[in-house]
Design a protein that fits this description.
Elements lengths: L1 H8 L7 E4 L5 H13 L3 E5 L13 H15 E2 L5 E7 L2 E8 L8 E2 L3 H4 L2 E4 L2 E4 L2 H12 L18 H8 L7 H6 L3 E4 L2 E4 L1 H7 L3 H4 L5 E6 L7 E7 L3 H14 L3 E6 L2 E6 L3 H14 L9 E5 L3 E7 L8 H5 L8 H9 L9 H12 L5 E5 L2 E7 L2 H6 L2 H23 L1 H10 L7 H7 L6 H13 L3 E3 L12 E3 L1 H9 L1
Parallel strand pairs: 1-2, 11-15
Antiparallel strand pairs: 2-5, 3-6, 4-5, 7-8, 9-10, 11-12, 13-14, 15-16, 16-18, 17-18, 19-20
Helix pairs in contact: 10-11, 11-14, 16-17, 17-18
Organism: Advenella faeciporci
Protein name: ATPase AAA
């Protein structure tokens, strides 16, 4: 016991640890105990000053009785922590250990159940808003947000055509499959979509979940003082992964590595790690949260991925690093897994840290912030220098154009030239363009082979304000004509 207490005293205050000098100001102390119970548990050690020196409590037995009475009189539902006295250096410490509670949300009686709920955010206590209180309640009942039915909607509100194209031959999305995947559920004798189904494949997703989109930004330097480029991504969640990756590639730089006669493109940013972190944010975000979308911020020295929603009760950042996982959105995770975007639950974060070590990059940082979780992936110092303000300002436009030409001429030359040549005289449909490149009309082929040409300004839509129109066709831009003629 003595060695464990000495070890605690050497640690900084955290999500699961706090020190107090005495019981002279009980209100902050009680809020900490409430926050521990509603979050991942924790220890409150009384008799330690701000410099982490042991000063002890003056009347141990009386203080022990007082803390027990304070907890009983001021916290509801009833909280029963482990309270004990321990002696160290001839001084007595009062230790209150709280475990994650199955009776959450606990609250401060004086403030009531709507204003008195607190959770632990790093080493501080945060007052829970109604959405967070609702999530705590759902967790106790074993209900996930994305499994809740939306009885006002029907199967017609789902873009099942896109969903079927994403699944391809992996699964037929008949009624049985939709129920198994919990995209549909039975509600009062009707089949209705779940919130997860609308988040994944809803035709009007943002009408019901206005913050379910992704904001990307490229900033000069290492702060958010000056933004260089930005993009809003409103794709369906499974499609957003590739769109985010393309934005990051746009502001990275590429070099080539040759092994024999084979060329391998090397990017200045760790794409595999970033993809894992992006998927982690998409599947674990708290979509009941209002006021903040997922944010991707690209700086010269790092890329920050911020997702709304604090850690689930019982979870700490150390748990995440060790591969422990609690699923906030099981419906979304299941779909991502079946689509091959998630390999194994809980393994993504551990792989990110392992790859950073293998690549010699600084260790990624996970931070609890006011709106949720920030995942920071650091870049190597050499690449940070190349992505400096001068490099970005003077060379990125030219380099992107060179990459486009290089990708057209080397990476997918025959397929791209076939498509560009086919629509050089008159606009062609998606199916016609893919057929010209000997590709099927699968949606993933459209995403991989046509969408990049649109984003790079080589092709353009004939009906840009209605991208999903059945009459939509594609034609060459001036840049596309230049590239075609040069090849």
């Amino acid at each position: 016991m003595t060695s464990s207490i000495l070890s605690l005293l050497q640690q900084p205050e955290s999500k699961i640890l706090e020190f107090k000098r005495d019981l002279s100001s009980p209100q902050p102390l009680l809020k900490s105990l409430i926050a521990f119970a509603n979050s991942a548990g924790g220890r409150l050690i009384i008799g330690v000053n701000d410099e982490h020196k042991i000063i002890g409590v003056t009347d141990p037995l009386a203080e022990e009785e007082r803390i027990c009475n304070l907890i009983a009189d001021n916290i509801a539902p009833r909280l029963v922590p482990n309270v004990e006295l321990t002696s160290l250096n001839n001084k007595t410490l009062l230790i209150v250990e709280v475990f994650p509670s199955s009776s959450r949300p606990h609250y401060f009686k004086k403030q009531g159940p709507e204003q008195g709920v607190y959770v632990r955010l790093g080493s501080t206590n945060r007052q829970a808003d109604p959405a967070l209180i609702a999530e705590l309640q759902r967790g106790v009942l074993g209900i996930s947000f994305d499994e809740i039915p939306m009885p006002q909607l029907s199967i017609q509100d789902l873009d099942l055509e896109t969903a079927e194209k994403l699944f391809g031959n992996k699964r037929t999305l008949d009624e049985k499959s939709l129920l198994t995947l919990k995209l549909l559920c039975k509600e009062q004798g009707r089949l209705v979509p779940t919130q997860g189904a609308i988040l994944l494949f809803g035709k009007d997703r943002e009408m019901y979940f206005p913050d379910a989109w992704v904001q990307c930004g490229r900033f000069r330097g290492t702060t958010k003082v000056e933004i260089f480029d930005q993009m809003e991504i409103h794709d369906l969640l499974p499609l957003a992964v590739d769109s985010i990756e393309m934005f990051l590639k746009k502001h990275a730089f590429k070099s080539a590595k040759f092994s024999g006669m084979r060329r391998k493109d090397m990017w200045s940013i760790p794409l595999t790690m970033l993809r894992e972190a992006i998927i982690n944010a998409l599947v674990h975000s708290d979509y009941s949260h209002r006021g903040s979308p997922i944010r991707i911020a690209f700086f010269d020295d790092r890329i920050d991925i911020e997702s709304p929603g604090i850690l689930l009760p019982g979870m700490t950042i150390e748990d995440m690093k060790n591969g422990t996982s609690k699923i906030r959105n099981p419906v979304i995770v299941r779909i991502f897994r079946e689509l091959g975007l998630v390999e194994q639950w809980g393994s993504g974060v551990k792989r990110i840290f392992a790859e950073a070590k293998e690549l010699g990059l600084p260790e990624p940082q996970i931070t609890e912030i006011a709106t949720g979780i920030r995942f920071s992936i650091r870049l190597s110092e050499s690449n940070s220098e190349k992505l400096s303000e001068k490099w970005v300002g003077e060379q990125v436009s030219e380099q992107v154009s060179e990459q486009v030409s290089e990708q057209v001429s080397e990476q997918v030359s025959e397929q791209v030239k076939a498509m560009l040549g086919y629509c050089s005289e008159e606009p062609k449909s998606r199916q016609e363009l893919l057929a010209a490149a000997d590709l099927s009309n699968a949606y993933m082929n459209y995403k991989r082979h046509i969408v990049p040409l649109l984003e790079q300004g080589i092709l353009e839509m004939t009906i840009p304000d209605k991208p999903r129109s059945r009459l939509q066709k594609y034609r060459l831009t001036e840049q596309g004509k230049l590239i075609l003629s040069s090849n």
